Amino acid sequence: MVKPWKIVLLNMLLLCVCAGSANVPRLSSAPSSPPAPLAFNFLATTPAHNELVFLGVSGRRLWRKDAVRAALEDAARKVALYHGVEGHFTQQGSRGLGFFDSEAVVEKELIFDEGLYKNIGKDLQYNPDTDVYEYDDTIFVRTRYAGNGFTINYPRSPPQEKPVWISSPPWSFEGFVAGVGYANRHKYLKDAIIKSYEAAVYAIIRNTSNTIGGSVDTYKDSANTLGSVDVNTAYTVSSSAILKGFYVLEIWIDPATKAVWTLAVAISQ
Length: 269
What we know:
Order of helices and strands: HHEHEEHEEEHEEHEEE
């Protein structure tokens, strides 16, 4: 027979074990948000101190130095776009009354001095201790380019919040034409970021110059015994412009979907 004092001691030990296990922290399954530098400060590249800031991105490589070099090449490509880029955008489409009776074709092209960005890397300055950042298998390098810096006043986004310019894209800021580029999630985050700032170039071109044409054709469907009338609508939207001073101000990455938005400005010619 178990003595009463042993039963009391056993219950006390069980209570201590249960209380201790209740204090053990549990792992959360919720996705983590980007760290503070990536959420705002690191991806805001407003000009400062007569220097232009260009953020380059690259995927992770076997050797970190190779990833940094690729990110520097991406930053140099943005410098080339800053010096001048010609862009063409054309969208053609047609739509009928049927659910499947529609199609759209988009043609676009960016023309800039590719030889320039391949040789401009030596002019980019960065601190390997403070200007290199890694997030989601992507290497970010924040570079500075000494040149004709400029001042621009625009409502900067608050830290770690979705920027207002995503839902209300601006058209201009004090003499600069503005545009917002978007790219949905890609297999690699760096590809989405590149597609996003390229889309910002096209957005500025569309805000600068648009030519819209269209036609509506009405015809009787010979196969329809009720004698109904079908309507086919065709349209063409084309834009073309030469931009100087294309410059990215902010990049925002949705922490949940990994979609990317880019706010940029330029001077149209």
